[in-house]
Amino acid sequence: MRLRFPLSLKVSLWLLLNVLVLAAVGLGFLVGQGGIGWSGLIGGGGGEHVQALANAPAAEAFGLAPEKRRGALAPYAGGLG
After folding, report:
1. Disulfide-capable partner of 40 in 10, 35, 59, 64 (CB 3.0 to 4.6 Å)?
2. Closest by alpha carbon to 27, among 39, 40, 15?
């Protein structure tokens, strides 16, 4: 007697297999480009963009006294709630 699987189970298993293969390829690409961790994530173009965005408020707050930093950084905190 041969065990038969429903078509929905076969399709679901193929979908799961494809997702796992894509995840493995993506992880391999991530490791190949810079490794896993913060240094790998901030080393590329996205990291440079985030660094450029962070430089503006950091430059404003760098020379101020600690009690005046809150006022200088308030315009940048508008979207943070």
Report:
1. 35
2. 40
